[in-house]
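From the methods appendix. Each design record in this collection lists the tokenized structure first, followed by the designed amino acid sequence. Records were kept in a plain field format so they could be parsed without special tools. The example shown here is representative of the layout used throughout.

RECORD:
FOLD TOKENS (164 positions):
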């Protein structure tokens, strides 16, 4: 449950707040980008304490992201019966990737991260494709449509029930 709350908090609240502060203070025409733009915007609102606040917020966000990705990977490996040796290898590789990610240029980290996330889509898309018939059957069982997307008789009866 925390994973869902973290995504909502990070994405909806934090990103929206950051965008609002940037747009309402320095704007996009300042010639700054990335962290410099964010620091300039928050400094206009919070003064000299903005840099320290943003540094702490960034460290906490990075740490929570590392914990979440690590936990998701370990959970997937346990599901696939990775065993103790598999978990040890995964943790070693994860730690190495975390250290490497902190030492190479940010642009390279973002490119590799996007590429790896794309590669994670491939097995998921394959699974969705292969399970399309099962998904359709289960959906039809739940909805009682018997394989028809729009059943006029059911549609009319449900409309009548709603109107009563």
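DESIGN:
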């Amino acid at each position: 449950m925390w994973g869902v709350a973290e995504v909502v908090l990070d994405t909806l609240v934090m990103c929206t707040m950051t965008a609002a502060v940037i747009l309402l203070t320095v704007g996009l025409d300042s010639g700054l980008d990335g962290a410099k733009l964010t620091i300039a915007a928050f400094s206009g609102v919070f003064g000299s304490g903005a840099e320290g606040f943003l540094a702490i917020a960034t460290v906490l966000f990075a740490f929570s992201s590392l914990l979440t990705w690590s936990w998701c990977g370990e959970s997937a490996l346990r599901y696939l019966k990775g065993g103790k040796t598999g978990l040890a290898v995964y943790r070693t590789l994860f730690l190495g990737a975390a250290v490497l990610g902190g030492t190479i240029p940010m642009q390279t980290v973002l490119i590799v991260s996007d590429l790896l996330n794309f590669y994670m889509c491939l097995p998921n898309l394959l699974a969705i494709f292969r399970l399309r018939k099962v998904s359709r059957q289960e959906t039809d069982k739940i909805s009682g449509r018997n394989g028809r997307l729009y059943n006029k008789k059911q549609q009319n009866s449900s409309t009548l029930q709603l109107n009563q």
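APPENDIX NOTE: Residues 105-146 form one domain.
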